[in-house]
């Protein structure tokens, strides 16, 4: 039971540190990642938020 709690808390801490999708930090982080490793959602979000910045991304 202790191992399960340790794993779950570790996962929560790691994911909580990731920058929010669409932020400048997220765009920079994704630019450093090899494009072959991007998911389809990451590619779509990168195009939407980092290349074609929409009015609601201000």
Any overview of this molecule?
The protein is an all-alpha fold. The protein has a domain of 39 residues. Helix content is 62%, strand content 0%. It has three helices and no strands. 2% of the residues are buried.
Query: Level of helix content?
Result: 55-70%
Beta-strand percentage range: under 5%
Largest sheet: none
Structural class: mainly alpha
Strand tally, please?
Answer: 0
Gyration radius, in Å: 15 Å
Average pLDDT reading? 85
Helical region count?
Answer: 3
Flag low-confidence runs: none
Shape annotation: elongated
Order of helices and strands: HHH
Distance from N terminus to C terminus (CA atoms, Å) equals 45 Å
Q: Could you write a compact summary of the structure shown?
A:
The chain is mainly α. The chain has helices at about 1-15, 25-30, 40-50. The relative contact order is 0.11.
Blueprint (SSEs and pairs):
Blueprint: H1 2-16, H2 24-32, H3 40-51
List keywords for this structure.
62% helix; 0% strand
